[in-house]
Amino acid sequence: MSGFLNEPVPEMPPLSIKAIEAFGEQVLAALCPEALAAPTALDLGHLVEFVLPKYGIHFVPVSLAELPSCEAACDPAGDGPINILMQEEFFDGLFLSGRRAHRARGTAPHELSHALIHVPIVRRRRKVPHHQVLLKRRVDMKAYCDPEWQAWCLAGCIMAPRRTLRMAMSHTRSIDALAEHYGISAAFMQSHLRRLGLLTRA
Q1: Is the CB of residue 45 less than 8 Å from the CB of residue 95?
Q2: Cβ atoms within 10 Å of 61's Cβ, excluding its own
Q3: Given strand 82-87, what is the order of strands in its sheet?
Q4: Spatial separation of the C-alpha atoms in residues 33 and 16, rounded to whole Å
Q5: How far is the C-alpha of 37 from the C-alpha of 39, rounded, in Å?
Q6: Please, which contacts does 31-34 make with residues 24 or more away whose CB atoms are closer than 8 Å?
Q7: What are the pLDDT digits (tens) for 64-74?
């Protein structure tokens, strides 16, 4: 069985794809409303440097030694601004294009989704007296309660919302072409289309 599915994580309140899509549209309406009007490859470098800090979300480049076990991590500590630590190599990828940027353009919205959905929940839970963090294997929980599934679902909805995907898919059914248009990897696009129930139409 996949080690990733055996990973222990805190179970989250259930979220449907419909709810996540609606939230994703709210996020884009605030951060980049033009991305809801037409198929758009988000300028993540601009969002990370100039837009997200206004909302108290900061991407912090760190060395491999400081973050040796993963590409990026969202820190839920405290009650104020949220810091997302990201290895320098991947942080720099936010300012690139093409295949060199794909890992960064998948990782960053995934961690942003943790900041938007899960950090507020974790912080509220920590304020409950005698609260203990209960971890479950991902394979033992429903997908809609899995924080990783929720984060990947929201990341896809931010990078390629359904309403503009429909516009793009009226011109091409190629996963590779759609992925290139939105500036994400074909694997990311394929997974996103599958979650939205659009894969057979791609």
Answers
A1: yes
A2: 17
A3: 57-62, 82-87, 72-75
A4: 23
A5: 7
A6: 31/55
A7: 999 998 999 99
Cα 17 to Cα 8: distance, rounded to the nearest angstrom: 23
DSSP state of 80: S
8-state DSSP, 81: P
pLDDT tens digits, one per residue of 133-192 = 778 899 999 999 999 999 999 999 999 999 999 999 999 989 999 999 999 999 999 999
CB atoms within 10 A of CB 84: 23
| Element holding 50 (H helix, E strand) | none
Give the DSSP H or E segment for 61: strand 57-62
Q: Are 161 and 25 contacting, i.e. CB atoms less than 8 angstroms apart? A: yes
Q: What is the pTM of this model?
A: 0.94
Task: Output the six-digit token pair for 71.
Answer: 């590409």
**Domain limits, the chain:** 31-127+136-195
Q: Is 47 exposed, middle or buried (0-12, 13-18, 19+ CB in 10 A)?
A: buried
The SS3 assignment for 37 reads coil
> pLDDT of 5-21, one tens digit each?
577 899 999 999 999 99
**Rg of the chain on CA atoms, in Å:** 17
3-class secondary-structure state, position 27 = helix
Look up residue 144 and give its DSSP letter. G
Task: State how far the Cα of 61 lies from the Cα of 191, in Å rounded to an integer.
Answer: 27
Helices (H) and strands (E) in the chain, counts: 9, 5
